[in-house]
């Protein structure tokens, strides 16, 4: 199993949690972005730089990931594709996307996108807080512990 990160929009605090987890459990962590990323020196952490463009990083992740891999993303369409390939998708707030909830999440995302298209200001997500970081770290730890059994 590997962990893939949709790294262009992933908060730095979440990346730091992932760096520590990769070292602790000795699991490959691959950050995919269209910008050059700084990563700590580690045999478990690497980054892949893709061309700039709409969904280029998402496409690269879906193409390279395998069944059972974990993908860290807040991108709901990407999460849907990951689940379709029997992967696991976790957002930076510590919520897993699942076969049971992904359709509802996609519908809500599309509805909000339509509202924004008509000029309605829907606001953005709340700032990632300490509770979100803790929820993410806890979910990641539980997931990794299950994988090691």
Strand arrangement across the biggest beta sheet = 3-2-1-4-5-6
The helix/strand class is alpha/beta
SSE pattern, N- to C-terminal: EHEEHEHEEHH
What is the number of E strands? 6
**Low-confidence stretches at least 5 residues in length (pLDDT < 50)?**
none
Largest β sheet strand count, sense and barrel closure: 6 strands, mixed
Distance between the termini: 13 Å
Average the pLDDT over all residues and give the rounded result: 90
Binned strand content: 5-15%
Taking Cα atoms only, what radius of gyration do you get, to the nearest Å?
15 Å
- Note the total helix count: 5
Which range best describes the helical content: under 10%, 10-25%, 25-40%, 40-55%, 55-70% or over 70%? 40-55%
Name the shape in a single word: globular
Topology:
Layout: E1 3-6, H1 12-25, E2 29-33, E3 45-49, H2 56-64, E4 70-72, H3 76-84, E5 88-90, E6 96-97, H4 102-117, H5 130-148
Helix pairs in contact: 1-5, 3-4
Main features:
alpha/beta; 45% helix; globular
Written account of the structure:
With 149 residues, the chain is of the alpha/beta class. The protein has helices at 12-25, 56-64, 76-84, 102-117, 130-148, and strands at 3-6, 29-33, 45-49, 70-72, 88-90, 96-97. Helix 1 links the parallel strand 1 and strand 2. Helix 1 (12-25) packs parallel to helix 5 (130-148) and helix 3 packs antiparallel against helix 4. The two termini are 13 Å apart.
In short, what is this structure?
The protein is an alpha/beta fold.
